[in-house]
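Re: duplicated header lines in exported structure tokens

Our pipeline writes sequence and tokens for each protein into one text file. With two proteins the header for the second block appears twice in some exports. Here is an export where it did not happen, for reference. First protein block:
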Amino acid sequence: MSELTITLLRLGYLVLLWVFVLSAIGVLRRDLYGTKIVDRRGPAPRTRATGTAAGAASAEQPAPQTGGRGSRAARASAIPTRLVVTEGPLRGTTLPLGSSAVLIGRAPSCTLVLDDDYSSSRHARIFPQGGQWLVEDLGSTNGTFLGEVKVQQPTPVPPGAQVRIGQSVIELQR
């Protein structure tokens, strides 16, 4: 073999070694700092900024604007407007509730990304149906609990009830 061939093999081996070292550093960095949590609160500011979006948001809620004070206050208190993490690593995190489902789990594509070894990648979803919010377990390993009861099928979630997913406890609040 010529000296040029040996030099090129050495350089190729050096490049391959550096690629391996940098990929190992990338894996260690992801393990240390965890999954990047993406803030998906985009629709909430638009609702406040434009009048048409605010009208659409009020159309989602069944509370009439012209009804008596008693009936409107009773209905408004029964409709949750935000999802709050009350216990766990993301304690204090608040998500506004709209007309779409909230997907909860470890996967980066979820609406609420939990950094929890006891939750599945797509653990549960909370979704509106018929004027109320329901929680559904998506086949998780450790289960989803509404209070102390394991969720087996889509179950209505009253405001203030605790939904436990892994180490996190989530509440729907007004």
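Second protein block, exported in the same file:
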Amino acid sequence: MTATMKLGQLADFLGATLCGSAETDITGLATLQEAGPGQLSFLANPQYRKFLGECRAAAVLLKAADAQGYVGNALIVADPYLAYARISHLFDPKPKASAGIHASAVVAPDAVVDPTACVGPFAVIESGARIAAGVTIGAHCFIGARCEIGEGGWLAPRVTLYHDVRIGQRVVIQSGAVLGGEGFGFANEKGVWQKIAQVGGVSIGDDVEIGVNTAIDRGALADTRIGNGVKLDNQIQIAHNVQVGDHTAMAACVGISGSTRIGKHCMLAGGVGLVGHIDVCDGVFITGMTMVTRSITEPGSYSSGTAMQPAAEWRKSAARIRQLDDMYKRLQQVEKRVEGVTPGGKASSDG
């Protein structure tokens, strides 16, 4: 964590245009509404521009158009939100782990742990696992047999990796996440469910982030695969044999059924559900609470369900929906009667 930086240093770091004093001290980050002396803020969403005039921040990240008329210190950038994202790491208070294996950790004799890795208290690393350089394994993590974690990985406390989970470089996994659990696979024999062994694994690409309490099941035969740069929010369920393309992002509570394939650069908003054995092409955006029941073959935005409205209006709409089938049948009858009338308005001979 960097305690204090000069505004000029931040301008150089971002390649930004500095308006104001390069010697201004920056000690942290804050919103436009809450920022005070020593703090840097940003304006990314136009609806917050109303707070700019009264902002007490030491400096603000702004687009050139928004900087016109602003009298305070500013860093002019093309994308303030992206600039804020880059600077945020300079002021991140997250503790830095020290290399070494805690005395209470249990590490199998044939597991390979790089000397620069950190293994926290009460962590367990089973036989054949390989932990690369710079990896942090938090307290009470479980690393199953033959798992591999690439360089620079960071596992928060209480992450569970079942056996044969392979993780790329610089992967972040938050607390409670479970990778490699047995997929939901059963065969029905005369009303009795017979379990199917899940013999595949899980493969995670580079620069992936996996949120709190997210579950990624192992494959039934081949691996469940998550591509490079994928970002997964909290409490997401990814079933066995799902494949997620590079740089796709999913918000909380998404549920993906088995053997579904998601393309690259897709975005799934909160609560989206997908049935199994379908394909979603690259470049798809699915809005919140949408239920995807068939494959999507064209890029674009997709939605289902109804938007919020006052409860009384919604109840009326729901009642109309229940009447749609009856209305459709009556419309068909009207159309048949109309078809039986001549253009002159008289009934035809067979009417």
